[in-house]
């Protein structure tokens, strides 16, 4: 039996994730521009700190459907602070912040003709 204020660490990592809320880029962008932004973020993400294997797991989760993303973050030991994966931590306490553009498409995405 624990204190009323205590909680199991597994509860934090098991937080259910969801898609980010709808968002808009500052100006309409094409899918190619969005992909370029995403690639640039993922190429530079490990330089923000944290462990490369956690960044890799977060990228895999960001690119997967919700069910698979949930399994990826749980198996990597990622502690999800925001259910949309915009703020996460690893088991050592390193913070990982993901911009919404790597997690979903903007409402003002220019569709290919």
TrEMBL record:
Compositional bias, Basic and acidic residues, is annotated for 1-15
Q: Which Pfam families match?
A: UBD (PF16455)
Positions of the UniProt region annotated as Disordered: 1-22
Ranges for domain DC-UbP/UBTD2 N-terminal come to: 14-112
Looking at the record's lineage, which domain of life comes first?
Answer: Eukaryota
PANTHER family for the chain: UBIQUITIN DOMAIN CONTAINING 1 PROTEIN-RELATED
Q: What is this protein called?
A: DC-UbP/UBTD2 N-terminal domain-containing protein
Origin species: Fraxinus pennsylvanica
């Amino acid at each position: 039996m624990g204190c009323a204020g205590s909680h199991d660490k597994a509860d934090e990592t098991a937080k259910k994730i969801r898609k980010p809320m709808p968002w808009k880029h500052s100006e309409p962008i094409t899918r190619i521009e969005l992909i370029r932004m995403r690639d640039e973020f993922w190429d530079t993400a490990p330089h923000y700190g944290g462990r490369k294997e956690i960044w890799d797991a977060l990228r895999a989760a960001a690119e997967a459907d919700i069910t698979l993303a949930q399994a990826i973050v749980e198996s990597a030991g990622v502690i999800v602070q925001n259910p949309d994966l915009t703020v996460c931590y690893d088991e050592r306490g390193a913070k990982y912040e993901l911009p919404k553009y790597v997690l979903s498409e903007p409402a003002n995405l220019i569709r290919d003709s």
